Amino acid sequence: MTLTDNPTIVIAVVALALIFLRQFTARRVRATAYLWAAFLLLIGLVPPGPVLHPTVATVALLVISLCASIAFGVLRGRQIPVWRDGHGVILRRGDATTMLLWLATIATRLVLAAVGYVAFAEPIELNALWLGLGLSLAAQQLFTARRAIALSAT
């Protein structure tokens, strides 16, 4: 099976590339960013779902990895530069720290997936990766939006 045999994977990879590119350009802080998170969450929940062989151990590992994804999203949301431009518009743009946190998010997810494969014979399921990235992006947006609201109140 090649990557192009599964259109869901191709669409998700293209969407992920767009999300990353948008992270590093100055953009308004708007609620539409939640649409990207919702897209990844939906891709992650497409059958067969994030766990192929649910056991206590594999579900626990999924929960741990999702919690890690949320934690990294919170860190990025609290760290990403947010400012008001000359016209009073609230903007955000990722920096080197944002990139490092994204790389750490993905690396953590892949390491935990590998642990599931080695320790529990759970195949590496891309749906779990998309689900985690969607939660991470939603957490990032939530904390970035909170910072934007606080900045607009000043």
Automatic annotation (TrEMBL):
Organism, scientific name: Pseudonocardia yunnanensis
The entry's keywords: Membrane, Transmembrane, Transmembrane helix
Protein name: DUF1453 domain-containing protein
TM region positions: 6-24, 31-49, 55-75, 96-120
Domain of life: Bacteria
